[in-house]
Design brief:
mainly alpha; 3 helices
Amino acid sequence: MSEAMRPGLLDVVKTVLFGALGVRRKTDHERQTQPVNPVYLIVAGVVFAAFFVLTLIVIVRIVVS
């Protein structure tokens, strides 16, 4: 497997974001025939979850204050 064929960082981020929203185009699913490194998915998922929780905390603090 060459490095040029593997999904890049943007592809991993798109996969995590669309997975969080629960939507994904069929063409994107079919295009990603190369497996994504699970470590990249886990790291991107944790970063997204942390950012999401921090955003919710900030919104709640703004509304409550």
